[in-house]
């Protein structure tokens, strides 16, 4: 049996199992709290796994291992930013948000401000961030199928995107948050299992001596010791000062973006109390941190054992090829086939779980923030709101399938960086101000969100990722006047500043509401309780 | 159960109480400086990765260099701070927070 057939079978087993879970979950999904927040009945450990499943995208699994395999140490910089970011979420956001919000990010902002403008801003930003991220994952799925299953025709790729999209829509529309969470838990377990297995085999080959693995990787890479230190990919000496500032900009967007990503924030609502939200982030940090340590071995292992010539230009095949190679060396031809198939199937499971989380976040925000509170001014029944959420999940899903097919073959890696930059520049300032600053008001919240969102978008449009370079989206044109490919260094301060100025220019101030959110956030008084089934 | 019956003045009273101010002080006095510290520690790592590459490339143990050890230390500090945070919350925050919550919920139900 070929590896393609085997990985297709394994993937179908995963799909069958997760669809079973989804339909089981749908029978327990009755109220809005069930659909949006899984009845708030997940344990800290379960939600911690789901956080891992939601956060460790194909970009972290295949992408970071690939960057390390091709450019050495620089891939590790990415992992560290992604991990340290969780401390912002843990210390400043998770528990306070669980205590003061209900279903979406906007709930926290709307709490003490004029709800319609604030929900509109937060809803728009949620949908923009999630769709950027979603689109990048969809295009990634198309690229992945070419690499792993040998599908090269345009129709084949388009069909894969449709398949991924349809599954994602079913998970979300049918299973709601409960179904989606279980898909993410199953995926996290598979991903950790697969990555641990390959890591142990690779380390075993080097007698569990990390130094000799690194030495071999550096030697095989042809770049020598430079391969083991920063500077081959981000902020290379050739790029000069702009390159190094870009590195800082990327580092800031990574570390501050996570706690502003809507699909991550809504995970805090799936547990019964703030203490469980704390526990779930602790679990999440443990899992995500361990995973990034594994990718370090996978990346250097691929550099040492597979070599850059055998991989695709972006390095996305580094981890699967490494699995094949190490399997062959240790267990023979069949072993290689089986390991490759396992890792390829895990990669697809990874994409599915992440796109489901993103679709859920954007459709929840559309239904809860824009439809129920902005259009209908809160006059909707639970049932109607859930129906709208399901319909919008379907529409957003279909829309991203379409965009995913159109964007096929485009360089969309910048979309993820953009999503992080918008989250860090617009969402994070609004959330932090609203939890910690008593003067913050409606004008401040809308200025922070729109200021951060617009500045990040504008700076990216006029950056080298869109025009003026060989790898730009439009290599033929050149209207890039902003030298950095990541806008964070400028757009994050703009977001915070806009929020401050907006607040100061408006006279609105409601001390009673601030007292309420402050007491509720810190003590958990009146926090939404878990549903009883 | 529901919060709608809560009079805003209940919250204002609670907020003005000495115990709540103590709770808020304990929370902020720990999390704010710690956030500043881990962000500074992380930025130091990013800046050194951009501007001190020879230093980062210094070998320490076999092929394991300063950059790798610095990176591992970021993992260690992240795990450590997460653990310390949960200890701090359990010991210094949760007891007072629970007390205030029970009191307010008892008063309004």
TrEMBL record, chain A:
Keyword Cell membrane among record annotations: yes
Gene Ontology cellular-component terms listed: plasma membrane
Record keywords, A-Z: Cell membrane, Membrane, Symport, Transmembrane, Transmembrane helix, Transport
Localization of this protein: Cell membrane
Superkingdom per UniProt: Bacteria
Chain segments annotated as transmembrane: 6-26, 47-70, 76-97, 118-136, 156-176, 188-208, 247-269, 281-306, 338-366, 387-406, 412-436, 448-467, 479-501
Location, primary (coarse class): membrane
PANTHER family reported for this sequence: CATION_ACETATE SYMPORTER ACTP (PTHR48086:SF6), SODIUM/PROLINE SYMPORTER-RELATED (PTHR48086)
Protein name: Cation acetate symporter
Organism of origin: Planomonospora parontospora
UniProtKB/TrEMBL annotation, chain B:
Highest taxon of the lineage: Bacteria
InterPro entries: DUF485 (IPR007436)
Record has Transmembrane helix as a keyword: yes
Entry keywords, A to Z: Membrane, Transmembrane, Transmembrane helix
One Pfam family here: DUF485
Transmembrane feature ranges: 29-52, 64-85
Protein name, UniProt field: Membrane protein
Annotated source species: Planomonospora parontospora subsp. parontospora
